Histidine phosphatase family protein
Amino acid sequence: MLLRHGQTVWSESGQHTGRTNIPLTAVGEQQARDAGVRLREAFPGGFEEGCVFASPLRRAQQTARLAGFAEPQTLDGIAEWDYGRAEGRTRKQVSEASGFDWDVWRDGPRSLTPALEGDWVETLPGGEQVPVHAGPGETLEEAAARARGAIDRVMPLLHDGHNVLLVAHAHILRILTSQWLDVDPHFARMLRLDTAHYSVLSVYKGDNVIERWNA
């Protein structure tokens, strides 16, 4: 089971939120609680101890706990795609600064001008200040390799018959799904995953499949 974190101010503004550690909004907090209700309705047996994992980033950790999973294990492999030079900026801002119509799936962070690299402090609407780091970023292939590592990490649990929940972010969960299906990671761009929605990956007649999506 894959659960995307709830709403943040940047998920609403369209700013690329890779490793910047921003919190959920009040709406996002309620979305996380509601997602927990839907998951318990869909999986009344719940998840056994040691079978819930969350990205190290604050928004995912908050979502896991608000959804009712008090002590998720931290799994670095499902941290969000490192957008590098696009971090904290919208696609329009990135395109204007770089002089071409940039697309994260097609071009990746490292196609952007190094002039966009830097560190600054962003003040959120509620007044909280968060540090932002825009470095070179990682390629789609590097993010996919991390996702494969995360799958390998939980496979022993799956083989033993346990349900596993991963609480993370839109892009990395979509990329992870492509790796579950053993297809090119660019396929992930075709998968829409909304805030605080969950998806189910499983095995059907020997094949890794998508059982449910964006529920």
